[in-house]
């Protein structure tokens, strides 16, 4: 194995490593940021973590989609992620209303 082969293997492995690291770092920072916002607004932090992670994942997917597939695919990926955020929001509100009616 020559030095050239080792450098090529290193670049390929590190490219995937760096992408995975940055992708998860965006999600982690967003979740932590969401926790801080939620606790600042007198919440427990769980909803902030959920929405922070969902938004962070949307951002990281759009970045990944843009770098790998281009603008149109990145936009579609972002719209798909935003639909999931909306579904989670609806579920939480409906679940809260149903639970509130059971107590009263």
Can you give a write-up of this model?
By secondary structure, this protein is an all-alpha fold. The protein has one domain. The protein is built from three helices and no strands. The model has no long low-confidence stretch (mean pLDDT 85).
List keywords for this structure.
104 residues, elongated, mainly alpha, single chain, membrane, 3 helices, transmembrane
Summarize the structure.
With 104 residues, the chain is mostly helical. The protein has 3 helices and no strands.
Major pleated sheet: none
Distance between the termini: 73 Å
- The chain-level structural class is mainly alpha
The value of Rg in angstroms is 19 Å
Number of contiguous helices:
3
Strand tally: 0
The domain tally reads 1
Helix share of residues? over 70%
Q: Identify the overall geometry.
A: elongated
* Beta-strand proportion: under 5%
Order of helices and strands: HHH
Mean pLDDT value: 85
Uncertain regions spanning at least 5 consecutive residues: none
Secondary structure layout plus pairing:
Elements lengths: L2 H38 L5 H23 L2 H33 L1
Helix pairs in contact: 1-2, 2-3
Keywords: Membrane, Transmembrane, Transmembrane helix
Protein name: Major facilitator superfamily (MFS) profile domain-containing protein
């Amino acid at each position: 194995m020559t030095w050239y082969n080792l450098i090529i293997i290193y670049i390929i492995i590190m490219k995937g490593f760096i992408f995975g690291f940055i992708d998860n770092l965006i999600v982690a920072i967003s979740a932590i940021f969401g926790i801080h916002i939620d606790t600042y607004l007198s919440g427990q932090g769980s909803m902030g973590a959920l929405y922070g992670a969902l938004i962070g994942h949307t951002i990281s997917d759009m970045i990944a989609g843009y770098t790998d597939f281009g603008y149109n695919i990145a936009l579609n990926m972002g719209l798909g992620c935003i639909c999931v955020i909306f579904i989670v929001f609806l579920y939480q509100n409906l679940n809260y209303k149903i639970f509130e009616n059971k107590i009263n």
